[in-house]
Every structure is written in structure tokens, then in C-alpha cells.
Amino acid sequence: MVVLGGLRGSFRLVMPRRQPGVSSCTLTGRALEDGVVKTTTETPYGYAPTGKDTGLVKPKGTSKIRAHEGLNTIDIRARKPSWLKVRSPGGANYLRLQKKMRSEGLHTVCEEASCPNIGECWEAGTATFMILGDVCTRACKYCGVAHGLPTQLDLDEPRRVAETVASMGLEHVVITSVNRDELPDGGAGIYAQTIRSIQEAVPGCSVEVLIPDFKGDEDALQTVVDAQPAILGHNLETVERLHPDVRPGGRYWRSISYLGAVKRLAPGMITKTSLILGMGEEHDEVRQAMADLREAAVDVLTLGQYLRPSAMHIPVARWVTPDEFADYKRIGEEEFGFKHVESGPLVRSSYHAKEQAREVVAGGPGRIQAVLEADIPAPAEIRLDLVQLELGRPGRSVAGS
Prior knowledge:
This protein is an alpha/beta fold and about 400 residues long. The protein has eleven helices and 15 strands. An eight-stranded mixed β-sheet has the order 5-6-10-11-12-13-14-15, with helices on both faces. A three-stranded mixed β-sheet has the order 4-8-7, with no helix packed on it. Strands 1-3 form a two-stranded antiparallel ribbon. β10 (about 170-175), α5 (about 190-200) and β11 form a beta-alpha-beta unit.
């Protein structure tokens, strides 16, 4: 959701025309070439980190959600269980990679989202590149990435990412991004250029992408699929009940069906998603999310513990034990038929991604192959004085219909 300082109600944004030969452009507060009207109310509090260089950062709002009412959530100052302890990063490879990212003006989700595995992965010479800037148009309640109005579109970024991948000698690379809802294609074109640039610069390097939902735009999805990444991921993040509260810029069935549509467009492509546990979900709800994802024939599922980035994010509802994560791996693979489930307290979307790209064989299309809820506004796009219409599960009749 785009927020402009001091404005309440509806406003229209118009993107300036791109000039030929310009390698990057700056987007003003008038941006959206497609003329989309968005409704928003600015919140004067919430998570708003400083030091971002590609946009105007705005607060994410309250850390309280309806689903936590009556729950005894965990205080941010509480001691974490032993299985969540990791060594602070700072080895030679970590410092070398950090310097490389800074010199090329690149971002990683490892840093922006405060990934607990950054020390392990960077010491091994792997990182997840975050393209399209460091300011996201959406305000997910669990995410450490800054929210606000992006002001830049770096058209030279694909080349620099590819050159960095080549200089690192990577065999597998993961590319993700912030949401760029103000762009006509959501940034899909930059994704495709980045994939192709890496494939040209480093033949044999497999490319995995973790994409936004592009607001359900199938043309944008086709643009990325046509670039032929080895794995196409899009994260569901949480169970259906919690989705409107913690991921107000997205929709549950839109995300699931977007992955299902990939299998129709490219049946041999590996699809992947992730669930964050410990935000208040119940065991049966996790099982139901697994079942729903398999309706879209999702191949790979990762599950990890929610770690609160700051006191201005939603609290942790509970610590999920390693035994529970092990059980979810068994359930996902043996009961629901995922090709692979990576499950553990510190697991994140790109954890052990190289191994998955080498070992997993894609399954065929599932029952859900069409994009759902593409024309239904997400909760964050609906004015507070209007009632949101919920369509429910595919195939389930709606009351009164």
C-alpha cells in the first residue's frame, strides 16, 4: 500500500514517461502510469527504519492484531530458547560479501529482513539478492523490510547483479524483491532481465526467484516464467485466518492460485512457498494450508519460526519446538505429497536452496490453475468504512448465493 505524507482518502498517481537512454529513473509522488486509485489513511506511528536510499519510508502502523486478542504473547525482551541461538556474523567471507554489495549498490534480503542465517550463508558465499530497491509498497506486520513510497527504479540493476554473481562464482542464486505496486508490471520486467543477465553471465548457474503476487497479474507472471528460472517461489507466509491481519496487502487464495497458474504456464517448473510459524496459527490450520497449497501442486514448502524484528512488529505468539518442525516435515512430505519440505526454527525461504534446485523434480499441474482474487482488493486497499467481501475457499458456496 502506498502512503503519501499528510494525505487522507483517495489520490491518483501518474508515473512520468521513461526517457530513452536513461539507465535509472526517479518516481515522484505522482507515480502510477496505469492510473490506479488507491485509498489510504496515514498512521503516525509504527516501524519506520532509517537509512533507506530508494524511497520515502512511512510507518507500518500498530503492532496489535485481532488474532492476538486474549493470547499471552511473548515479550520482545524475553530470552529466546536455546535452539534459536546463532553466532554473530563477521567472518572473512561475510565481510568480503558485505563490501561487494555496498560497492555495487545492491541489497540483500538477508540484511533487510534480518535473517538469522546471514552468518552461515554469507560465510558459505551465498546470498539472496533483493532487487527493485529497499522500500516496499506493502506493510506486512511481520516483515523487517521498510515500507513506504519507492522513488527510484534502477534499470542497470540486472547487469550489476549478474556481474556480482559471476565474480562470486555462484552455482545457484536466489533473487527476491520488495513489492512495487506502483509499477505497471510490479517489477516483473526487471525480474526477467535479471534472470536472463545471470544466465548469460554465468552459464550453468541455476536461478531461483521469490516473487511478489504482482496483484494477481497473469501477464506479469508470464513475463517471469518466460525467463525460465529453475525455481519460482511465492510465499503464502501464514494460514488463512491470520492472513488479513498480518499480510494486509495480499490475499490468501490469490497467492496459492498464483503458484497454481505457474504449473499451467510451465508444467516442468519447480514451485515453492513458505509458511512462518509462531504468529498465532493452530496446528490444524497449518495442515489446512498444506492441503490448500497441494491443490495448486506446489512442490517445495519451507517452514520457520517467526522472529520479531522490532517492538513495532506483531509479537511472537509462541516458540515452535524443533520436534514440531520435524513433525511438519513428515506431514508435508508423507501425508500431503510435497516433493520436499525444509522445516526448522531457523529455516527461511532460501535456506538450502541450491540443494533443492539440484534434487527436486517438478510435479505436474494441480486442480487450481487459474489466478483467483486478482480483481478483489486486499484488506489494505479497502477503506475502513467499507465492508470487505470474502469469497471463501474455492468450491465453497458463499452464504446467500
